[in-house]
Amino acid sequence: MNSMSPQSRKRIYMLVISMIAITVMSAFSIVWMQQQISRTAQNSKENEAKFAETVRKLRYLDERIATMHQPVVLQGKVAGVLRPSLDNQIVWVNEQNVATGRAYALSAPYEVSMDLALLDFE
User: Fold this and answer.
1) What would the pLDDT profile of 45-61 be if each residue is shown by its tens digit?
2) Coil/strand/helix, residue 82
3) Model-level pTM?
């Protein structure tokens, strides 16, 4: 009845032991992967919450900026300070107070330009 050689028995035992070891290691790997997936999902949830909060703050600030730049609000801030100039009014500008970062004005104080905005057709 015992037709198996001792060498064959050792191979079968080693095969069974290796199958059990692989099964146990696979089970631990699956548990580890599930934990990593759970951690990643939690981190993603926290990052999405932070992102949503940042977007909410940016929208609030955009709304505030838009409100502050409304013409009515800007007029209200300078209501008592500015007034329209008179026809016979002379305005003296001190040359030392010339702004240096102008993007739309002349770069030098006495530069001549042929821009149509400077020409008087009347």
Assistant:
1) 999 999 999 999 999 99
2) coil
3) 0.48
